[in-house]
Amino acid sequence: MAYMEWSENLSVGIKEIDEQHKKLVSQINALHDGMRSGQGKDTLEKTLGELADYSQYHFKTEEKYMEKFGYPDFEKHREEHDAFVVKVADFQNAYSSGKLGLSIDVMNSLMEEAIASSIIEGAATTRKAAKEMLRKGKKPSNKSEQMVINNYRAMQYIMEHRDEPLTTELILAVHRIVTENTLEDSAVGRFRDNDDIVVADPVNGTVHHIPPVYTKVPEMIEELCRFANQDDEGPEKFIHPIVKGVILHFLIGYIHPFEDGNGRCARSIFYWYVFSRGYWLFEYMPISRIILKSRKDYSIAYLHTEYDEMDLTYFLLYNIRCIEKARSGA
To answer: Using an 8 Å Cβ cutoff, are 209 and 254 in contact?
Structure first.
């Protein structure tokens, strides 16, 4: 089965662009087939280069039609094209220099992150079914599939907004995306308005965490945003961006500002932060897949931190181990 399949659902109604899109799909499939068949680095590097070159050619065609028809967001769209070209160049350089291995995992990473992050939160769907849904643009047929779609869209959203400061509005927007059609409308993109939420063992009901009272949530989120946006330059203030991203992840889980979807939102904000600090390689590292394999350790890291006077060492070490495993493809 091809990695991607062309369908009329992908058509934009302009023959020249549709034909170019078909060509891009064909090149992506060729790259995928090359990886699966174990082709050599030189061959894969050539295929990757052809895909990059044709993408630039295609972008110029798209921009020509946008100018012709007065597309309202033309400048923004062109900036997105330019950013993609830079990212592909970075990817090519990393692959050529041996810093990044080209593998099926790299190609699947964005979808893997969306799928794994959903399953951590209880989505019941297989990776095969989820990937097919994402690749073919199928509409979700149940809550589990909706969660996968939502997380995939959240990853795209934070990439688009990685250059913006963290604000309450951005966090609410991320939550709105990850919970769309999975919660009551009154809870989507809104802070909780009660203290009925606790983090408990689903089997025996043991309460592990009681979040702060709901009236403190807006203030705590504002403080979290100030922490995320503040200047960390200088030897006394410096916090490594990956460490700071993990801290933000922990804080959203600890504050538990929402009725549901806190974990998905927290992991999305981690990605937003490392993207915002130039760590583009994280786009190719499905960390949630590693967390999924060690959900018990994930929970224990949270608990040890809270029970040991908020010593974040436990949570930091756990996440760093997950990052290393995602990086090495373990």
So the answer is: yes
